Amino acid sequence: MRTTFFMLSIVLLASACVPSRQYEELKVKQADCVEARENLTNQNRTLTAQNEELNADLENLLETMKELKDDTTYLGKRHRQTRDKYTELNKINDQLLEKLKQIQSQGDAENRTLLDALRDTQIDLQRREDDLRELEGMLNAKEKRLNEVESELKDREARVKELEDIIAEKDAAVRALKDRISQALLGFKDKGLTVEQRNGKIYVSLEAKLLFPSGSTVVNSEGKKALLDLSKVVKEEKEITILVEGHTDTDPINGGAAMKDNWDLSVLRATSVVRIMNQEGGVDNAMLTAAGRGHYIPVADNSSADGKAKNRRIEIILTPNLDRLFEILNE
């Protein structure tokens, strides 16, 4: 009985083989998918770094504004003190002039003393006036710089607020989409299917046993129903991209010419899922990407049968469109 089953499996695998040219095209697409994923990762890092830089700039501007306000307060105090002193000196000068008129009849020595005092007072008054003008110039410059910093700070705050609003809007949309997906796939909850939201993305993970017979790349009827239920929810979404990743355990396969290793198996399974979502589920081709990760990103220990079962999976990753965020950061 086992020999008959084995021979039947070989016949089925041989019939599933694709021409060499198509196999090479699949390898090229796999490389493109890996490169695209790396680009998305790099873009995400760039976005995070730029957001941190904006926050750092905002903190620096707040500190600068505080220093300018402190300087303005200090200069304002100096200005008031100098102005009061100037008024006092004017009053003294007036008193001296009045006194000079009263004692003009007195001796030359006393007149000279009074004239010297008057000259010294006038010199001191002139110096005070010069200090006052200098302080007024410094105060005006500080106020101008303070206004510039406040204007720049408002622009930065508006930019950060716009970024935060877009991120919040994206997060709310992702949460709502995740809830709709969870509701649509509720019947598969205990059959190896999970829906999670992480890092602003939605991860729909389906264990291989839900989708494929052992060693096969053909989706079974129950798995197809799950994929079509998912497609109904996401096909009208215009602001997301969908990455379908195939994952395997570490057990080697004997796939012959069609599948040489777990890389091939993971790619072909991901491609099978993409075709169903597009051709039968109506999801736009431009939204879909198929990728094979082999056994290199496990979620459990491959030393146990249960761990291997968890690692044999399809992950469907839904990512919101962040083009508007990049436009704001590049302005």
Provide structural commentary.
By secondary structure, the protein is of the alpha+beta class. It folds into 2 domains: about 20-55 and about 175-330, OmpA-like domain (60s Ribosomal Protein L30, Chain: A, 2-Layer Sandwich), CATH 3.30.1330; about 55-170. It is about 70% helix and about 10% strand. The chain has 8 helices and 5 strands; from the N terminus they run H-H-H-E-E-H-H-E-H-E-H-E-H. Strands 1-2-5-3-4 form a 5-stranded mixed β-sheet. Helix 6 links the parallel strand 3 (about 240-245) and strand 4. The protein is rod-shaped, with a radius of gyration of 39 Å. About 20% of the residues are buried. Mean pLDDT is about 85; it is low at about 1-10 and about 10-15.
